[in-house]
Design brief:
single chain, TIM Barrel, eight-stranded parallel beta sheet, 12 helices, globular
């Protein structure tokens, strides 16, 4: 309740799998896997006061050859759309695409949104070692901008650092995932992708990684080392953060307050990373962060996501 009104809560960052698609890559999904969508999914949502989950699928098909990738994405998007249609009051979904084949990804995105009714698209933070800002992916970005749908970027870690991130602490995820998001967003800024496609609606998982916490250094880089920069951007690097979106999964009230100070409350959506148990108190996290008005809290809990996803 905010200001005496019941506020809908939308979780922009929740995961699932489609077993039939996983099997095409030789992966089995146990019957009790919490990534599966079924009646058991809604109880933890209710416990956490989540009204609507936005479902995304972490990519496992970027290494697949073209025809297999096409078939995986087709069955994945069709099944996901069926699940969301069957539970339209609780679930919406992001399309998946075989971004390693940009022309195919354009077709899959258009079909996923216009034919299947999916509300956006999810991507990994890189594609087989290539940055999302590579010119070969421009046709995909052009289509995403044309359709006006959100693109949710979720990291898969940094394989090049695998050796250094071994050992105690699950550093491949704890450090590697936010680091990949930081790298991906930085390339999209510095390589000019956001200048070429200013209407893109990009949302980064895990609070955007480390970038919002150290954005001012991005502004100083080319001023300090001008010979290392060969492209002139239309604005300061940190200013691009105010046209991006970020989920709220930053764990402390001070972290969320700082994120809002850097990017604006209008750019933050609620995120839980369900079913991975990073948090069970995402709503309380927003409600307890000091300095937010009720309108800020409502925007983060649902308003920003509803606008991006076109949910009434």
């Amino acid at each position: 309740m905010l200001g005496g009104r019941r506020v809908k809560v939308i979780d922009f960052h929740a995961h699932c799998v489609i077993p039939e698609a996983m099997e095409m890559m030789g992966r089995k999904t146990p019957a009790q896997d919490p990534l599966l969508i079924g009646p058991a999914r809604f109880h933890p949502m209710d416990e956490q006061r989540i009204d609507v989950e936005v479902l995304s699928i972490n990519p496992f098909w970027y290494s697949a050859e073209r025809d297999l990738a096409r078939r995986i994405v087709q069955i994945q998007n069709e099944k996901l759309a069926e699940l969301c249609a069957a539970h339209s009051d609780r679930l919406v979904g992001f399309a998946t695409v075989a971004i390693q084949y940009p022309d195919l990804a354009v077709q899959q995105l258009e079909e996923g949104v216009n034919k299947l009714g999916l509300r956006g698209v999810s991507l990994g933070g890189s594609v087989n070692g290539e940055e999302l800002s590579a010119p070969k992916f421009d046709p995909f970005w052009a289509k995403a901008e044309e359709l006006g749908v959100p693109v949710f970027i979720h990291p898969q870690g940094v394989p090049e650092l695998q050796k250094r991130l071994q050992g105690n602490g699950f550093l491949t995820n704890v450090i590697g995932n936010p680091l990949e998001t930081t790298i991906a967003l930085s390339h999209l800024i510095f390589d000019g992708t956001l200048d070429r496609f200013p209407g893109l609606k990009l949302c980064a998982a895990h609070g955007g990684g480390y970038l919002p916490s150290y954005a001012a250094r991005s502004d100083r880089g080319c001023l300090t080392f001008p010979n290392s920069c060969n492209k002139t951007l239309k604005k300061r690097p940190s200013e691009y953060l105010k046209q991006l979106y970020f989920d709220s999964l930053v764990f402390t009230p001070e972290g969320l307050r700082h994120l809002a100070a850097e990017v604006g409350a209008s750019q933050i959506v609620l995120g839980t990373d369900y079913p991975y148990p990073w948090t069970s108190a995402a709503v309380e996290h927003v409600l307890s962060t000091p300095g937010f008005s009720d309108s800020d809290r409502e925007a983060i809990l649902s308003g920003n996501a509803a606008r991006l996803l076109r949910i009434s």
